[in-house]
């Protein structure tokens, strides 16, 4: 028997979209198979029936076209939620996201802001091979003008959309594909889109994660606890702008850090965070910052190869133990 | 149209006046570029003036324009003041985009001018979205989208005309076919060079227009805009035109012959309209001289404005990356009892 109020990550996002559609006539959902099909990951199931084809719009397979149309509709006074089926397909719309959504406000000298929300699935772990498994949110976090969110909890899945829609600028929400079936009872409360969150506290080491790697990192912290190592777990939540203060506050207590990122190591988000720690907390560190990232390969199909490619609990534990031993 | 009309109220005179404004403005821009007052990429519209003037004549003040990097003409005719366009090219804070855009990125919210876009085809989705917003909000407005023949080789073009036709959106697609995508001739880019024919395959109304004849463009644009306002979905005009100058100030123009350029100059849209008006006794040489002088005064004033306009403070470099009203908002997760 399920506990009262139990929901899934998928249902939490659906309820957030539903609430947004009810709350504001300017909001509409647009993307491939969001309507009749119910969403590739069943996120929008039932919304077409409730809100009709005007506000739950199936699009052709034209990522640049419909993402750009979302930008234009935002300029025209609407509050679009554009769903891109996976992050890999977002590359077909990268021109619109980077050259228009991220630049129009600045290029127009402050005249044209773009109040647009783009949601997409990211991440590996489901044997979908290289073209359906990448974690490119770190690339998007490189781009000034965008805000990048990575909900890892039911509360964030449910609560991040409303402030994203209230934001006057483009917000990209990355939903890890491995989380849609995660279930539980979301805790009530306010959810911001500005800060990182401490998901567990311990003064021996800081583990920094987000999205799909948060839960592996929490499992690693459990295992570390059995070995007498108490870990702070920082859930970044917002990848741009990064909440440096929360990271540095934790490192100020623990003096050691491991960054866990499903993106690649070279030139990635973990490199950025590591550099910021060096810049802002160098004298607090008792050991070199460790990184657990995805191996530098296109994500392979075979289960054992995929598992070897992406961050796992065992690797996080090993990195943390090394940092603590240093 | 800009409210200024130095040469009376004849519709032909206004069309002439606007074309001449663009021509004279850009001729001065060339001088200013040589003097290094204007830098960066600058693309001239000289030769193509009939297109901007004819299309914009069909638009109402609350219609929208999405343009390209060759957009001085579109902006001027739309009513963006020459002063702020010039100041923008000077990189001054008084420029329409506060010096952050330059020649290729003229924006003006007041005139619903959604920019110069430097990515070929990059503005098309914006036009589709603006039109979608109008349709969803029940507004009877037209979004005019300018782009070149080169953009028709881009995927974004095909995605956008399909989407606009599929959803019957009020977009006027204005294809400025000047026969070259930078230096690549039409026939070297497109297997089928009849662009209107190709557009028509997306089930929208499309036809070719003599883009060197401002009256033909104005007539076609009026017809298309009226039909779009009546709810018959997007229209596509292939405006067959020619640029007399090089692609940009960096272009040595090696890919076409002088003879070809001279041949097209015989069809200069300004000369053609003047000849027609003179034949109909609509304008005299004296009238023309007065019109030209008034335009020169307007441009002199724009240059004087730009010359004395201040620069943006460097401390303000990172303004407008995010909105200054940006809240650190928060969403509320309701209690478990209220959850689904």
From TrEMBL, chain A:
Its cofactor is thiamine diphosphate. Residues 7-182 form the Transketolase-like pyrimidine-binding domain. Its EC number is 1.2.4.-. It is an enzyme of class 1 (oxidoreductase). Keywords: Oxidoreductase, Thiamine pyrophosphate. One of its GO terms (molecular function) is oxidoreductase activity. This is Alpha-ketoacid dehydrogenase subunit beta. SMART domains: Transket_pyr. It comes from the Bacteria.
């Amino acid at each position: 028997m399920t506990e009262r109020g139990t929901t899934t990550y998928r249902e939490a996002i659906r309820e957030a979209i539903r609430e947004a559609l009810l709350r504001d006539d300017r909001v509409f959902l647009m993307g491939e198979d969001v309507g009749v099909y119910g969403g590739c990951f069943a996120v929008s199931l039932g919304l077409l029936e409730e809100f009709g084809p005007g506000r739950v719009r199936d699009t052709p397979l034209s990522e640049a076209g419909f993402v750009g149309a979302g930008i234009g509709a935002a300029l025209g006074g609407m509050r679009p939620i554009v769903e891109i089926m996976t992050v890999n397909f977002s590359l077909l719309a990268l021109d619109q996201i980077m050259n228009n959504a991220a630049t129009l406000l600045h290029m127009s000298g402050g005249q044209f802001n773009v109040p647009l929300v783009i949601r997409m699935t990211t991440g590996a772990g489901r044997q979908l091979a290289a073209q359906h498994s990448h974690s490119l949110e770190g690339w998007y976090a490189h781009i000034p003008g965008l805000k990048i969110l990575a909900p890892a909890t039911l509360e964030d899945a449910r609560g991040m959309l409303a402030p994203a829609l209230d934001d006057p600028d483009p917000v990209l929400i990355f939903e890890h594909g491995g989380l849609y079936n995660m279930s539980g009872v979301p805790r009530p409360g306010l959810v911001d889109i500005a800060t990182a969150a401490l998901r567990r506290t311990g003064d021996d080491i800081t583990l920094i994660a987000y999205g799909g790697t948060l839960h592996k990192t929490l499992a690693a912290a459990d295992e570390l606890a059995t070995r007498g190592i108490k870990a702070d777990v920082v859930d970044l939540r917002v990848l741009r702008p990064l909440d440096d203060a929360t990271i540095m506050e934790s490192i100020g207590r623990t003096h050691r850090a491991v960054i866990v990122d499903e993106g690649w190591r070279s030139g990635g988000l973990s490199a950025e965070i590591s550099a910021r720690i060096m810049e802002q907390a160098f004298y607090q560190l008792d050991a070199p910052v460790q990184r657990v990232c995805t191996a530098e390969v296109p994500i392979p199909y075979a289960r054992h190869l995929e598992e070897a490619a992406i961050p796992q609990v065992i690797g996080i534990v090993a990195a943390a133990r090394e940092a603590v031993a240093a | 149209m800009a409210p200024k009309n130095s040469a009376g109220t004849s519709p032909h005179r206004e069309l002439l006046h606007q074309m001449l404004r663009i021509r004279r403005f850009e001729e001065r821009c060339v001088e200013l570029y040589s003097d290094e007052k204007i830098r960066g990429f600058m693309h001239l519209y000289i030769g193509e003036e009939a297109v901007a003037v004819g299309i914009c004549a069909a638009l109402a003040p609350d219609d929208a324009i999405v343009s390209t990097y060759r957009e001085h003409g579109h902006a001027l005719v739309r009513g963006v003041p020459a002063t702020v366009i010039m100041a923008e090219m000077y990189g001054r804070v008084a420029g329409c985009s506060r010096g952050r855009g330059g020649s290729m990125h003229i924006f003006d919210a007041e005139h619903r001018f959604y920019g110069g876009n430097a990515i070929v085809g990059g503005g098309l989705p914006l036009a589709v979205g603006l039109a979608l917003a109008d349709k969803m909000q029940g507004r009877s407005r037209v979004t005019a989208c300018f782009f070149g023949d080169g953009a028709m080789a881009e995927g974004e073009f095909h995605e956008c005309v399909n989407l606009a036709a599929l959803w019957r959106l009020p977009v006027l697609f204005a294809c400025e076919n000047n026969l070259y995508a930078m230096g690549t001739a039409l026939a070297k880019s497109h297997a089928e060079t009849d662009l209107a024919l190709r557009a028509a395959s997306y089930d929208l109304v499309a036809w070719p227009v003599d883009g060197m004849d401002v009256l033909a463009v104005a007539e076609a644009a009026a017809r298309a805009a009226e039909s779009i306002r009546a709810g018959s979905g997007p229209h596509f005009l292939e405006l067959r035109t020619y640029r007399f100058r090089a692609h940009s100030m960096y272009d040595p123009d090696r890919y076409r012959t002088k003879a070809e350029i001279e041949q097209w100059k015989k069809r200069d849209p300004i000369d053609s309209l003047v000849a027609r008006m003179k034949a109909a006794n609509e304008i005299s040489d004296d009238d023309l001289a007065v019109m030209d002088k008034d335009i020169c005064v307007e441009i002199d004033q724009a240059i004087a404005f730009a010359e004395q306009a201040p620069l943006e403070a460097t401390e303000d470099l990172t303004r407008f990356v995010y909105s200054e009203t940006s809240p650190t908002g928060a969403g509320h997760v309701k209690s478990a009892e209220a959850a689904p």
